[in-house]
């Protein structure tokens, strides 16, 4: 088992609301996995908790997250940082705001490589170019010296994919990676992520059933912090059992 | 970007013209007759013929617009007339006094950069911890400190008690350490608060969260990414503070017995030497405008995307 989440709960301290309520989830190596649900259902909070981004002043987190059998929630910050960006990588929801606007994109991707690998600038540049190629980015040299504001949303999303795969991670978490994209780029990015499965396990967090259907794999349907249905996405789309899943599917068809 | 720089540079010209007009108006409305002031200083106040001839010599008998253009022409040529305080050419006086103030203000800026950047970074890194709370309290107090009081306290401690520095200013950099610190400290306290807020806002942004997921440590996020992005408001503030410190240098100069342009300006105002006072004000205002322009240019160079956002 690559990743195992046990009884994970996240409570907002001020209101007492549980945005994630005792969920259990597991992913095997190289497998695709889907977490589906409306906005505010708690999908992103799972991802934020996994990366230690839930502020302890605002949230109470309980439960366990095991990565390759080791509990990463009880690990110290230094050990967790070694995992993040190397073994566990994130593809963020909004690529337009996810990169430092004052730093050239090439430097930010190279930074991700050099933090985890002791390498020369030249070796880091080669690794960035290779990751860019794998992420479907052309004109690597031009992108290397571009600031994020100079690139389109689609290109930045691919750059985020490049940043995620640069260190050959075992697990990639894609948090609504297609939300900010148009239909054409949405299909391209989904296909790209699907292509990464096998070499890495990919958890796709989305609210889009079309994207989920194209991506495939085992799916968890999430509502108000709990999984209300789970199974193969094709089966869920063909014969949803839960009322909420039916509503979501109907809404997706209406759109 | 080039278009922005040209536009921004061009916008300073009307400001500078406005400054000269305002200075000239204030100079003429000051109520003090420079010819009479000169006569008083030469103990000939009762000599009306002398006062009239001085008035004619100074061009004070001409209509106001003519006087303005003559004054402006002189200013551009570097001929600002004679000071009734020192009896020297005002240009020579400024050449003598300005370097003292310039060194004082530049060193004060150096203090500000060291104090503000280091403390604000530490505050951001240890946000909510004891260090941050202590700095917040101290900076509120520091903003309220008058330069003259701080100057006297520094003299008392470092010159009288500890005898590290001399009460009478020494030649060289050591003579400027205490006065520049006294001048910089209250402004630095204000700037620390601005930079701390700016840095905290940057390290709570999306790109900082994403950097954490890529394995960057808090120090790396602050130093490599947050610091640069937090600079624009601080650089703008530094540009303004440099002007304020130049204009308000008189207090520090008086306390530390430095003969700078601030002291010269005050003595000109007291003696009714409006020509010299106006010349000093124009120079200070020009430096103020240039530093603000420089701050804007530096901001655009550091944060190139700002040009696109503002669409200028």
Automatic annotation (TrEMBL), chain A:
Keywords: ATP-binding, Cell membrane, Membrane, Nucleotide-binding, Transport. It comes from the Bacteria. SMART domains: AAA (SM00382). It holds the Pfam family ABC_tran. Belongs to the ABC transporter superfamily. PANTHER family: DIPEPTIDE TRANSPORT ATP-BINDING PROTEIN DPPD (PTHR43297:SF2), OLIGOPEPTIDE TRANSPORT ATP-BINDING PROTEIN APPD (PTHR43297). This is ABC transporter ATP-binding protein. The lineage of its organism: Bacteria, Bacillati, Bacillota, Clostridia, Lachnospirales.
Automatic annotation (TrEMBL), chain B:
This is ABC transporter permease. Keywords: Cell membrane, Membrane, Transmembrane, Transmembrane helix, Transport. The keyword Transport applies. Its main location: membrane. It is found in: Cell membrane. It holds the Pfam family BPD_transp_1. The chain crosses the membrane at residues 102-123, 135-164, 176-195, 234-256, 276-298. It is a multi-pass membrane protein. InterPro entries: BPD_transp_1_N, MetI-like, MetI-like_sf. Gene3D superfamilies: MetI-like. Belongs to the binding-protein-dependent transport system permease family. The lineage of its organism: Bacteria, Bacillati, Bacillota, Clostridia, Lachnospirales. Residues 98-294 form the ABC transmembrane type-1 domain.
